[in-house]
Specification:
The protein is of the alpha+beta class and 84 residues long. It has a four-stranded antiparallel beta sheet, with helices on one face. The chain has one helix spanning 67-83; strands spanning 5-12, 19-27, 30-40, 43-47, 50-52, 58-60. The two termini are 24 Å apart. The chain has a single domain (5-83), classed as 2-Layer Sandwich (Arylsulfatase, C-terminal domain), CATH 3.30.1120. It is built from one helix and six strands; from the N terminus they run E-E-E-E-E-E-H. Helix content is 20%, strand content 46%.
Length: 84
Amino acid sequence: MISELKVVRLHRLDNNSKTKAFADIAIGDYIVKGLTVREGKEGLFLGMPQDKGKDGKWYNSFYPVTPEAKDELLGVVLTAYQSE
């Protein structure tokens, strides 16, 4: 379990696109900006912040290393999204 993981900003979008919200999270004393709540074929999922590489492709600049960390991050952000 990640200590002190919380959503510090959640901005919902009022449109019909697959992107439903943008979120920033705090992990202890650090902020990660630019996560997205997106609608996929199997429901909502969390998109990680990305940077464009010199080759023109997009790469995640932040991501959980373990499946447990991914599930916890997803749970925290989706709980905040669904409670607003």
